[in-house]
């Protein structure tokens, strides 16, 4: 079968198209013919060797797939050990979820890593209460576009989207954000406060890290929560002053999806809700582009350059 393999750590240039044997499923796994694989920032971190937990070389990237099983069912599943950028993949049988006909491959993949992340950071990390103000950094990304819609569905009083370009800010408004502001670091705090009528905000969702994360702390209200779920800026983990947090009764939480799926109610239930909300049109996952298997390098390049919006997928 054709697959993308990483034999050395590096940038998108190390993604190499190759021929590999068809994987053999274990008793608790299923073999699927991959119809689409999702592209995530985590894939770029695995490729350059910076991912939490690491990946042993060589490996096939791709941690989420939609494919047909031997019985013909259309299945969605995460494969955190990798293997998605390939014509065939093995998935854990216990994690396989059947996809409704009303949900496309790209939509389903958007719900798996990004959708579950958006659901958990709002529900379990931020513990959003009705009427609260939510700031979504990187609002035009895969998680951000879903977080905007879910925040409104969960009862947020105001959603403030932060994005780098006018077209991305327009997308955020079309998805339900009340206000969209520029992500310029120099004026971040000023813009966010102005967007909330001069008042501090209750919740900030941040996938950027670095200086933007620290700027967010300047605009948190008392008992406000900032949730960090990524480090797209690759600036390292900023030091947070616990004393300063105590003075404002503020909280900083960190989220990683992999262990969250093992918690009771952490996987099947929220994913079923996301699929149902998508099938009935309540939320609309945004698709950011399709790439052939031999274009995987370009998918990573576009993602890292922030040229994309929404969910990127690879079609083997």
UniProtKB/TrEMBL annotation:
SMART domains: PKS_ER. It comes from Kribbella voronezhensis. Residues 10-314 form the Enoyl reductase (ER) domain. One of its GO terms (molecular function) is oxidoreductase activity. PANTHER family: QUINONE OXIDOREDUCTASE-LIKE PROTEIN 2, SHORT-CHAIN DEHYDROGENASE/REDUCTASE. This is NADPH2:quinone reductase. It comes from the Bacteria. InterPro entries: ADH-like_C, ADH-like_N, ER, GroES-like_sf, NAD(P)-bd_dom_sf, Zn-ADH-like_protein.
């Amino acid at each position: 079968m054709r697959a993308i393999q990483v034999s050395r750590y590096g940038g998108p240039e190390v993604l190499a198209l190759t021929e590999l044997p068809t994987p053999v499923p274990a008793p608790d796994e299923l073999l699927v013919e991959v119809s689409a694989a999702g592209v995530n920032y985590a894939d770029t971190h695995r490729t350059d060797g910076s991912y939490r937990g690491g990946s042993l070389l060589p490996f096939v990237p791709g941690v989420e797939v939609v494919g047909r099983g031997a019985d013909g069912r259309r299945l969605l599943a995460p494969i955190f050990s990798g293997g998605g950028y390939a014509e065939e993949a093995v998935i854990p049988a216990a994690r396989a979820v059947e996809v409704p006909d009303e949900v496309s491959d790209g939509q389903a993949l958007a719900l798996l890593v990004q959708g579950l992340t958006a659901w958990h950071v709002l529900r379990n990390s931020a513990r959003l209460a009705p009427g609260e103000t939510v700031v979504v950094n990187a609002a035009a990304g895969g998680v951000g576009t879903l977080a905007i819609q879910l925040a409104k569905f969960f009862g947020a009083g105001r959603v403030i989207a932060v994005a780098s370009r006018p077209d991305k800010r327009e997308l955020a408004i079309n998805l339900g954000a009340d206000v969209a502001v520029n992500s310029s670091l120099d004026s971040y705090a000023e813009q966010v406060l102005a967007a909330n009528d001069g008042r501090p905000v209750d919740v900030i969702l941040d996938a950027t890290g670095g200086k933007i994360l620290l700027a967010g702390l300047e605009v948190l209200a008392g008992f406000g929560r900032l949730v960090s779920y990524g480090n797209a800026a690759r600036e390292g983990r900023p030091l947070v002053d616990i004393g300063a947090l105590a003075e404002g009764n503020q909280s900083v939480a960190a989220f990683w999806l992999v262990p969250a799926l093992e918690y009771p109610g952490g996987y099947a239930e929220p994913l079923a809700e996301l699929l149902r909300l998508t099938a009935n049109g309540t939320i609309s996952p945004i698709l950011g582009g399709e790439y052939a298997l031999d274009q995987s390098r370009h998918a990573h390049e576009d993602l890292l350059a922030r040229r994309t919006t929404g969910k990127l997928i690879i079609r083997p």
